[in-house]
Design brief:
single chain; 224 residues; alpha/beta; Rossmann fold; six-stranded parallel sheet; two-stranded antiparallel ribbon; 10 helices
Length: 224
């Protein structure tokens, strides 16, 4: 199949990378001098919009910080992430089989990401793990705000492909909604049986428990 005929878009956390505790905590570090970060929720689903840009805006508003702090906090976070990845204080973790998956399909489809992380954060983490070059040409993140459905829609608009030629792989119920709302093929991925059951309950019809299975499912969609 020619590369231009299909696109495979991945969520990042939970599909390509595991979000480590150190990476999660670093997101809140810029707030340390501005509020009590121990009281900030680490449950991403507790925020109005599960998107790094919108979460920072919500926290700025909630703690009565000046609106200009949104950009400052974002810049501080991205600089901290870059520095700690560079000096090895933080090591991003690749989901088992993700590297093989990208290598196998890079000649069969256009590969990309639609993540609720800032695009720069995703770039830094994926570069450290050697995965960035596979998805850099179609990389969309939290920048611009919105739910995952909006992020995925932004990616789709750049492709010039019908939704039937686009596959989205995600691990969260927001990813299921994004796939359904945008009318693309959706694969719900998780190594957790409980998580897969939750994805199915929210409408995911195709599920994968390991990326060896994801490879098989992708081949079935690409070559019906």
């Amino acid at each position: 199949m020619a590369e231009s005929h299909w696109a495979i878009i991945f969520d990042v956390d939970g599909v390509l990378l595991d979000l480590t505790r150190n990476e999660e905590e670093l997101f809140f570090e810029p707030f340390r001098s501005r509020c009590d970060i121990a009281k900030l929720s680490r449950d991403w689903n507790s925020y109005k919009i599960r998107n790094d840009e919108d979460i920072i805006k919500e926290l700025v508003e909630r703690h009565a910080l000046h609106p200009s702090e949104t950009a400052t906090i974002t810049a501080e976070y991205l600089k901290l992430l870059e520095d700690r990845l560079h000096n090895g204080q933080i090591q991003s973790q690749v989901i088992s089989g993700a590297t093989s998956l990208l290598n196998k399909f890079k000649t069969k489809a256009r590969l990309g990401i639609a993540t609720a992380n800032f695009r720069r954060a995703a770039e830094l983490r994926l570069k450290q793990t050697g995965l960035w070059d596979h998805v850099s040409g179609l990389a969309h993140g939290a920048d611009g705000g919105g739910h995952k459905s909006a992020i995925l829609a932004r990616a789709i608009r750049t492709l010039g492909l019908s939704p039937q030629r686009i596959i989205f792989i995600g691990d969260n119920v927001n990813d299921v909604a994004a796939g359904l709302e945008n009318g693309v093929h959706f694969i719900g991925f998780s190594e957790s049986a409980e998580r897969r059951e939750k994805l199915a309950t929210h409408g995911a019809k195709t599920l994968s428990a390991a990326h060896a299975q994801t490879e098989t499912l992708l081949e079935q969609i690409l070559n019906p």
